[in-house]
Specification:
2 domains; single chain; 484 residues; Rossmann fold; 14 helices; alpha/beta; six-stranded parallel sheet; six-stranded mixed sheet
Length: 484
């Protein structure tokens, strides 16, 4: 029988994603056939799985850690926020519909059966499945119909390890409080806990572990230090952008406006990893830096709404000034659509039916359409003649005179547009900066030379380092029982 364990957190952003990835790599390094699973994810950082559907980017990373093909069944329900209280719902890789938060609560019992079906498929052929929860089981107001935490664990009979984040403070109270408010049945699913993101002398927390044991009776399965290697892994939640407001100083400054519905911002991670690049994430209220040589408009889950927010922040004027100074601009997916003359949405796919003026930096226009393009792709950069590999997840068709100068040829079809003079470029290809040859040529065009490290190797090495840290700091007996 396939073993399974579920990591749930005392709150969001406690590090569950990285711990699951590290455990997957640790198990894979020991020769186990291991797979990740997350019943429900909420993120606009999506990936195209190897079987051709949308999943959370985190589950794609975890499958990479597990050295196993990614699948739609590893993340059967993906919520992609489009507004403050509404999301697009992806079920088993395909668009299921849209729902406001309150309406989605009514849908969850119906979706649980598909979650359990996907879990059964994920179990097939695996020695171990490591499941990641979402948010916290302590959100007992959401417990009826829950499919992300204890609702799944109790139905699938998967034991739970609770993860607490000591870096944010209050970890003893969060663990003891979770124990206090869970129902007896839910509490019985928890086999122990892990303290994550510890800094300093771990022996100083011995009394803390004793206190948690007194309050809960749960054993501690390890105190994991702050994992420096995790900074080299793609991030899932946009909350991390608050901590990445400014990169290290570098010879080339690249500015990225952080829009409310930013999507697939891990496109930028390969640039952030370059030692001679300063990647600046610009928050609303701040101007785009005058000394940036390149501005990148990233993907968006709601192009029209984010275009309005871009103007409200004054970034349209900053971009015009940037271009007048000779600066360059790259737009990816939704960012590409914003660069054109107009974005039309006659069917009201993103909300009310309307036509919104674009930034006018490319002579193209976009019309939203209900058919969604979702696929992994191989491409070639037209400008540099080097191979690209990435993926497409988008709605809309973009046409216009500047499309006669495509930025890439994707799967044999011209894609994107380049302005007269070549300083403005748009593309629908996510992941292009992860293509080492293209990234090298792009940086060379700004006068930066030198050998570029393989970004794939950077991520792979970081996963190995996380796995090594977990092997060192987690309880040996617990690890042996899990991986034995």
């Amino acid at each position: 029988m396939t073993k399974a364990i579920m990591l749930q957190g005392t709150g969001s952003d406690v590090g569950k994603t990285v711990l699951v990835a590290g455990l997957c790599r640790l198990a894979a390094n020991r020769g186990l056939k291991v797979k990740p699973f997350k019943p429900q994810n909420m993120s606009n950082n999506a990936a195209v799985s190897d079987d051709g559907g949308e999943i959370g980017r985190a589950q794609w990373l975890q499958s990479l850690a597990a050295r196993t093909p990614s699948s739609i069944h590893m993340n059967p329900v993906l919520l992609k926020p489009q507004s403050e209280n509404g999301s697009q719902i992806i079920v088993q890789g395909k668009v299921f519909g849209q729902a406001r938060a309150r309406d989605y609560q009514m849908l969850k019992p119906l979706l649980l059966e598909q979650v359990l079906e996907s879990f059964a498929i994920t179990l097939e052929g695996a020695d171990l499945v490591i499941v990641e929860g979402a948010g916290s089981p302590a959100e007992i107001n959401l417990r009826p119909g829950d499919i992300a935490n204890m609702g799944f664990a109790t139905r699938a009979k998967v034991p739970v390890v609770l993860v607490g984040d000591i870096d944010r403070g209050g970890v003893i109270a969060s663990l003891a409080g979770t124990h206090a408010i869970l129902s007896d049945d839910d509490r019985a699913m928890i086999s122990g806990y892990i303290i994550n993101k510890f800094r300093g002398d771990v022996s100083l927390f011995d009394d803390g572990k004793a206190a948690i044991n007194r309050f809960t009776g749960w054993p501690c399965f390890g105190v994991v230090p702050w994992l420096k290697a995790a900074a080299r892994l793609p991030a899932e939640d946009s909350v991390v952008l608050e901590r990445l407001a400014r990169g290290a100083s570098g010879a080339l400054k690249i500015a990225v406006p952080v829009l409310p519905r930013i999507a697939n911002f891990d496109d930028l991670d390969p640039l952030r990893a370059e030692p001679d690049v300063e990647l600046v994430f610009v928050k609303p209220g701040d101007r785009l830096p005058d000394d940036a040589a390149l501005v990148i408009l990233p993907g968006s889950k709601s192009t029209i709404a984010d275009l309005g927010d871009l103007r409200a922040a004054g970034w349209d004027r900053d971009l015009e000034a940037h271009v007048r100074r000779g600066g360059r601009v790259i737009g990816i997916c939704g960012g590409y659509q914003m660069l054109g003359r107009v974005v039309r949405d006659p069917l009201g796919i993103e909300g009310a039916s309307n036509a919104t003026p674009g930034l006018g930096l490319l002579d193209v226009e976009t019309e939203m359409a209900p058919e969604k393009t979702v696929r992994n792709s191989l491409a070639v950069s037209v400008e540099h003649g080097v191979p690209l590999a990435g993926y497409q997840i988008h709605l809309g068709v973009t046409t216009g005179p500047d499309c006669a100068r495509p930025s890439a040829v994707i799967d044999g079809v011209a894609d994107g547009a380049v302005s007269v003079g070549g300083r403005i470029m748009g593309t629908y290809l996510h992941g292009l900066f992860g293509s080492d040859a293209y990234r090298g040529k792009l940086l060379e065009s700004f006068g930066l030379s030198g050998q570029r490290r393989s970004y794939g190797q950077i991520v792979d090495q970081a996963l190995d380092e996380v796995a090594d840290e977990l092997e060192t700091h987690l309880d040996n007996a617990w690890v042996a029982g899990l991986l034995g």
